[in-house]
Amino acid sequence: GAQGSAFNRWDLVSAENTELLGHQSWVRRFDVGRASPLLITGAYEGKVAWWNLEAEQPKPQHLVTAHKGYVRAVAISPDGSLVATGGNDCLVKLWSVKEAKLIRTLSGHEHQVYNVKFHPSGRWLISGDLRGNLKQWDVETGKLERDFDGSAIYKYDTTFHGHIGGVRGMDISRDGKYFAISGIGGVSNAFAGIGVPTVILFDWATGKRLAVMTPDDNFKGTCWGVRFHPENDFIAAVGGNSSGMIWFWKLGEDKPFASEKIKSVPYDLDFHPDGLRMCVACFDKTARLYHLGPETPAELAAAKKTKAKKK
Fold first, then answer.
1. CATH 3.40.47.10 matches 153-311
2. How far is CA 110 from the centre of its chain?
3. CA torsion through residues 182, 22, 66, 95, sign
4. Fewest 10 Å CB contacts: which of 67, 89, 164, 300?
5. What architecture does CATH give domain 1-149?
């Protein structure tokens, strides 16, 4: 996605770039099917589009009006049968992927829904909003099962009478044992957006907060995206203000074991399924591809500790 109505598909081998057209406003969020060439996108015009990624020049197969106002969140279920969307109308909606028809509307949020994510089992859906409120839904029944508190990444500024923060990033570990959200915490100046990039780690079974992860320096900004490594041994996140950073944390630790500076502000990231490659999308209209191997950041950190002990 991007701050524009077009978005791009890259071939990782040839680096060939294909522009996809169909939306009339900024493409805010997308998700890709696990076992199919399906791509689903959501845009600020309030519409959601279905695409076949294997087509030479993909065009929307379906284009539906999903929300009143911005579509901010899109997630495809693990089995590829459902897609969940969330938007500025404070609603979460479940759609049939095959028919592009609405199945169920989930109401309960009082503020804009920023993120949605299916649990790997496919049984539950998590949604997060502007105020850091997190809701777990039963996908089969639509019943709200429990709430989680992510308010550490939200503030209402009484001076400027404005909201700042929210669930800007969200991910669930592949084994379903943990989930994480990201945003901005410790806000000292809401007007200037000055705060601490923050990731909150939860235990899925108990719902308890396990860690609040922040940079190990005085870096200020928003943590826009967060991902679990495919092997579930560490978390990566991106964020920034006028410049950017990538951070790596071990699960449960509050300070990163590694970090990387970026000249532009990064807004999201994802790992390749092989766990050795990572792509970061940045404000300067680039997608940066990183190679993490043969050692992963966690393995490199362990190797450094071993070398330090031998000295």
1. no
2. 21
3. negative
4. 300
5. 7 Propeller (2.130)
